[in-house]
Design a protein that fits this description.
mainly beta, 4-stranded mixed beta sheet
Length: 271
Amino acid sequence: MDYFNNINLSQNELQNAVLQNLSAAPVNPKNGQLYFSTESNKLLYYNGSRWVSAVDDNTTYTFSAGTVNGQIKVTDSSGNVQNVSVKGLAGAAYKSVDGSVPVGSDSSNLPTSAAVAAAISAAVSASDAMRFKGTVGIGGTVTALPTAGVAVGDTYKTVSAGTYGGQSAKAGDMFIALSPEPAWAYIPSGDDGNAYKYTVSNPALTASGGICTWTVNHGKNNKYPLVQLYEISTGEMVIADITAVSASQLKVLINSAANIAAGAYQIIVIG
């Protein structure tokens, strides 16, 4: 039965009523029109512009990229879509991301932080400039100087005394890679006064075959240091036969048929 006029129930109850069940929304709806969706199992009403749920059913929203720049697409759990435009971004252009920055690149894309770091490192390596890589020693960035993956200019500062790359060093000294093999240049800190100078006077020396032999343990870890010998009483430099025995020991041969008393000569070892 069709009704073509409004029905006034004069505030009487409409009991045991069932709303129209539809799988799709009615066409040409009017404000306030109701139906039960068999598709979503929801009671829907028309609010003048779209169909919305008649009860608070904790609607959820999904956000995604819009179809134009500066626009966000918002979809509710009922499938209704709203496009939200962000003011000032309508003319914005999306930028691609570059994972590397080759030499001479004029790309207008956005590079990743890793690409920027790699490009800077490559440029610095090409210039053979010093690059501070960290500290070496107990408690340092590394405990020993690296033997692979080294670039010219890689620089490490020692944080504890020890032997690094075959060189004895103290805390505060530095090592700089001269080649990728690597070969390391040792740079003392220069804050230890006479630490690189060893000086001592001779003990009593016994002549044998016309020669007095004096063994000097300088501990400089340098087999060929600069050596000077002086006669203490006159202050004159003495020329003697000096042999490098090892990186920490010298042997001084003084021509003398008689024994030499202690404290006659002073030796200075720099290295």
